[in-house]
Amino acid sequence: MILYTLRRLAGVIGVLIAVAAVTFTIFYVLPSDPAAAACGKACSADRLAAIRSHMGLDEPLWRQFWDFLSGIFTGRTMGSGHYALHCGFPCLGYSYENSEAVWDLLMDRLPVSASLALGAAVLWLALGLSAGVAAALRKDTLTDRVLMVGAVGAASLPVYFTSMMLIYGLIRVAGLLPYPSYVPFTDDPARWASNLLLPWLALAILYAAMYARQSRSSMIETMAEPYIRTARAKGLPRRTVVVKHGLRSGMTPILTLFGMDLGGLLAGAVITESIFGLPGIGRLFYGALSTGDQPVILGVTLLAATFIVVANLAVDLLYAVVDPRVRL
Amino acid sequence: MHPSAPAPPAATAAAVPTSAVPSSPWRLARRELSRRTSVKISLAVVGLFLFMAAAAPLLSALAGWSPDDFDRTAVDPYLGGTPVGPLGGISAQHWLGVEPVTGRDLFARVVHGAQVSLLIALTATAIVVIAGTAAGIAAGYFGGRTDAVLSRVMDLTMSFPSLIFMIAMMSVAKDVNRIVLMTAVIGLFGWPGVARVVRGQTLSLRHREYVDAARVGGAGSWRILTRDVLPGVAGPVIAYTTLIVPGMIATEAALSYLGVGVRPPTPSWGQMIAESVSFYDTDPMYFVIPSACLFLTVLAFTLLGDALRDILDPRGSRT
Fold it and tell me: Alpha-carbon distance A114 to A269, whole Å?
């Protein structure tokens, strides 16, 4: 187990270096003028000169990559002389648009994105799994059909459509909820939840639909396995068989999916956050797209990749706990 | 199989004494498909949108408007440019109404948008399927080092946050053909899914008797792969292909929605939805029309894919 964990950790680091290399290529190698690209749309000559110095564009490419990579782990001083700028650990670059280090910008906004992702995850797991398992256990009945038609429909709705409909229905017409504005959990948990309810719903509907479809087919497959029949034949009540034998291995494919999805959302739900005006990483990213603030785009990309890779590792380690067939 | 499950569809289909010709698997599949109402409806919807996309210039000429024609008479300048008439200006002149402010014809824009959206989605799917099948067959059939390297590359590609990377790549590239770039970028992250399915299927086929027989008979790898293995993986691949199309359409729409996809004035559904969001209060139809197109296309492809998977993929959950 320890050996496996170590091996996986090494793999994770390998993947992250590959991700960093690809991001580096996208932002430093591909553009015809990387400094101008990083400078954004409103760019002054002085700032451009500073960025040229910070990015070290006159250095050889491997040197630039090394500085970029080592900066992440140790922090670095970007540029020299008049333009010198210290960027502390972990240095993901400096946003000239915001005059702030990218890491600080990201950490300011992480709580918002995390609140959104975690709340939505609870909701979609509850909705999706119960719908999926209920449909699987009542396969080919009316319940099953209704649930699955609903799931296919909901999975086809783009998140911006669901969001707009929720805003229109629940805020404009019914006036049930306030227009979301983020309140930190530590300030007022109740208002935190009531403000986030709508974005949670918007995200959860889409994911719940996908999870319902996935968990239904996975559960049906599991319930057809011989060991389930054996358990039933031993005289165990159906309930016990479903919960203890069926769910446990039926849910392993869901776990993989969940790791990927949650990891991806932690680094910002771009569309949902920008529609609801939540000041999370996703909206920072969206803003960066329109101003051409490339250091931020680069930082978010790296952060998202890290979250996903780490979430995958966590899931693989959890497998051993959840599924008795997987012994590491 | 579950005791209460109905008899396998293949058996019932074979029992129907309609043809004396021995049924090939493809004919069985076709017969099974044509029995389902959901398949007929979704085929009709897919056909309709494909027709709209293919005949976009023709259709908009028929309606009398090109997607970039401004019609100032169709919008009311005193009401902030909202369309004249009910339901976003739907009339005999403008079949689906007009865009607020500019008065561009929505029907023309929707059909041209269908062209762009479906062109990108289907081309990206083709890239994904061809690359994925090639990689999957090679990994599964040759095994050993080829498999190790290809599987590693698949894992690596899959651990990338694809949407974010797509956005990043699209936002860096400024002066390239957006449609080509977008197709390539979407395709780049999709192939490992297909490759995994194909690899698994190939692994189960590579030591079947008929494959071994071909090998003993002196057939080369290329011949075995194309004549013996490829037909065996075709079923799951076709099913999987139909199921990834909706994802591709949604991805294209999301990228265009975020403003990194195709650039105006080229219309695409995602971009139209993004523009319409700020008018959702004054002109809801402007928002509803492209959204409905997107929704219907995605839904139809999903239903079609579900049905194909049930029938063609023996390992996929047959329900």
Answer: 10
**Does the beta-carbon distance from A139 to B319 stay under 8 Å?**
yes
What would the pLDDT profile of B203-221 be if each residue is shown by its tens digit? 888 888 888 888 888 888 8
Q: Quick check: B3 pLDDT over 60? A: no
Q: Is B291 on the interface with A (CB under 8 A)?
A: yes
- Buried/exposed code over B251-290 (b: 16+ C-beta within 10 A; e: otherwise): bbbbbbbbbbbbeeebbbbbbbbbbbbebbeebebbbbbb
Residue bearing tokens 């990206």: B124
- At residue B203, the pLDDT reads 87
Q: How would you classify the pairing of strands A94-95 and A100-101?
A: antiparallel
Evaluate whether B42 touches B299 at the Cβ level (below 8 Å).
Answer: yes
* Confidence at residue A129, expressed as pLDDT on a 0 to 100 scale: 92
Q: Which of B151, B155, B158, B159 to mutate to test the interface with A (most CBs of A within 10 A)?
A: B159
pLDDT of residue A194: 84
Q: Which residues pair with A51 in a beta bridge?
A: none
Whether the model pTM is above 0.95: no
Distance of CA B225 to the CA centre of its chain: 27
What's the whole-number mean pLDDT along residues B18-43? 76
Of the candidates B274, B265, B308, which has an alpha carbon nearest to the alpha carbon of residue B294? B274
- Of A160, A168, A289, nearest to B171 by CB-CB distance is A289
pLDDT digits (tens, 9 = 90+) for B222-243: 888 888 888 888 888 888 888 8
Q: Nearest CA of chain B to the CA of A79: how many Å?
A: 23
pLDDT at A120: 93
pLDDT in tens, B301-315: 988 888 888 887 655
Q: Six-digit token pair at A41? A: 């749309």
Judged by CB atoms closer than 8 Å, whether chains meet at B172 and A304 is answered as no
CB contact under 8 A, B259 and A290: yes
- B14 pLDDT band, cuts 50/70/90, is very low
Per CATH, the homologous superfamily of domain B57-318 is: MetI-like (1.10.3720.10)
What are the residue ranges of helices labelled H in A42-101? 45-55, 61-74
End-to-end Cα distance, chain A = 6
What single letter denotes the amino acid at residue A161?
Answer: F
Enumerate the domain spans of chain B.
Answer: 57-318
CA–CA separation, A309 and A302 (whole Å): 11
Judge contact between B172 and A30, C-beta under 8 A: yes
Pick A221's closest partner by Cβ from B167, B173, B317: B317
Verify whether the Cβ–Cβ distance B258 to A286 is below 8 Å.
yes
- Is pLDDT above 70 for B152? yes
Is the Cβ pair B319, A140 closer than 8 Å? yes
Report the C-alpha gap between B289 and B267 in whole angstroms: 13
Which chain A residues contact residue B280 at CB under 8 A? 164, 168
Weakly modelled stretches of chain A, pLDDT under 70: 32, 40, 79-84, 88, 322-328
Instruction: Return the H-helix or E-strand segment holding A294.
Output: helix A294-322
pLDDT score, position A326: 59
